[in-house]
Amino acid sequence: MVEQLRRDFAPPQVDVEEAGRIMETFSRGHSSEGRRVVLITSGGTKVPLESRTVRFLDNFSSGRRGAASAEYFLRADYAVIFLHRHRSLFPYSRRYSNQNWLDSLRLLPVPAGEEPRVEAEPNCLPGIVPVLEEYERMKGARRMLSLEYHTLSDYLHLLLAAARALSPLGSNAMFYLAAAVSDFYIPASEMPEHKIQSSSGPLQITMKMVPKMLSPLVKDWAPKAFVISFKLETDPEILIERARKALETYRHQVVVANVLDTRRSYVMVVTNTEDTKLFVSDKEESLGIEIEDKIINDLTSRHTNFIKQTSTYSQSNQGL
C-alpha cells in the first residue's frame, strides 16, 4: 500500500513527515495525561485531472458532520486531531458559515491617529458568546490539533502518518473517518501535464479505484484502535447490507450508516451484533439538538466497552 501511494499519486502538497511528528507529540502528551485521542477526518477530497491542476473532480461534502462531531468529542474530554479539507467547515465557526462575517462587524469611531477598532454585533451572530467561550476553553487547553489537506494524495499520506502516530495508544485511540473520500483517481503517470483543451473534443477519462486505506489501517497500521467508518447511500433498501459488508470486509468496529436525504436527522450505528437507530425529532431540532451529539454519545460509550474488553482479553492472555 505504501509503495502504491509513492508510485501512483502525485507528491503531497503538505509536509507529511512534519505533520506526523506533530501528531505523535500531541497524541503522546494527551495519552500520558490519561486522555483518549480521536482522529476525525472531515470534508471531501479533490482529484486532479491535470498535473498542473486547473480542473478536478470533487464531491458535495462541506465537512459539516466532522466539524460538529469534533465539538462533541471535545466535550466528552477527548483530544481531537482534526484532519480536514482546506476551506471545509471548522468546529465552532461552522455555525456561522452561511452568513457574511462583514455584516456582523462594524468600525468604531476613534480619535484621529489611533488604530481603528472593530466590534461584533451579537444580534448578527446568534449564540456567539457561549460558542466563543467554549472555543477559547478548548484552545487554551490545547485539546484540538488541526491539520489541512488539499488533494486526495494529501489525505491518503496524512491518514497513514496519523495511523502511525496513534498506533502506540492502542485501544485508547479512535479513528472517526467522516471524510468523503473519492473512489476514483487518475495515476500521476497517466495524468496530462497541462490544462486539458476543450478544442480536442469530448473528454473521455479512465480512472482507477482508490486503494482502500481502511484495510491496512485496521490490520497493520493501528490494529488495536477503535475504528468507525461512514456509509452514505441514496437507496435506503441497501444501506444496512452495505454497512454489514464493510464490517465483514475490513474487520473494524462500527459503521455509521445514513441516507443522503435524512443524514442530518437519522443514522444507523451498525456493528457485528446490532443496528442502533439514532434520530433527532422535530422538537429536539427546534431546541438545537444535533444528530452528531447523539452519535458521539453512542460511540464514546462503545469505545469505553471496547477498551474494557481489550484490557480483559490482554490480561487473560497474560494469565495463560
Automatic annotation (TrEMBL):
What is this protein identified as? DNA/pantothenate metabolism flavoprotein C-terminal domain-containing protein
User: Superkingdom, according to UniProt?
Assistant: Eukaryota
**Which InterPro entries does the entry mention?**
CoaB-like_sf, DNA/pantothenate-metab_flavo_C
The UniProt entry, under Gene3D superfamilies, shows: CoaB-like
PANTHER family membership: CORNICHON-RELATED
Name the SUPFAM superfamilies for this protein. Answer: CoaB-like (SSF102645)
Pfam families referenced in this protein's UniProt entry, alphabetically: DFP
**Which residues are in the DNA/pantothenate metabolism flavoprotein C-terminal domain?**
36-82, 170-283
The family note in this entry says: Belongs to the PPC synthetase family.
